[in-house]
Q: What sequence folds into this?
């Protein structure tokens, strides 16, 4: 008689299908938090006994990088002028000793 193998996840490892039962987001899955608050997951990994699985960690880092790349400024100062970002305008400014 053979007993079917059942995968057992370490209770301290956080996988995408893990449901949180504590903290700021009880009842939410790690998958939901990857999209909603990935920095919270990094905080959990660094400040608690819980550890992100490698798959979860990679997805969290990817999610944060995508959000940073697509982030647009919410506010531009009133004196902002588009030509200030022009590389030709910025040419030579690095030579100015501040």
A:
């Amino acid at each position: 008689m053979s007993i079917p193998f059942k995968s057992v996840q370490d209770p301290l490892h956080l996988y995408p299908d893990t449901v949180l039962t504590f903290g700021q987001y009880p009842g939410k899955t790690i998958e939901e938090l990857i999209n909603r608050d990935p920095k919270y997951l990094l905080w959990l990994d660094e400040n608690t006994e819980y550890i992100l699985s490698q798959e979860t960690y990679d997805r969290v880092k990817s999610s944060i990088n995508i959000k940073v790349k697509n982030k647009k400024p919410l506010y531009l100062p009133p004196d902002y002028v588009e030509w200030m970002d022009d590389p030709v305008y910025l040419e030579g400014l690095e030579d100015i000793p501040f």
Summary: The beta strands are 13-14, 51-52. The mean pLDDT is 76. The chain is about 40% helix and 5% strand. Residues 11-70 form one domain.
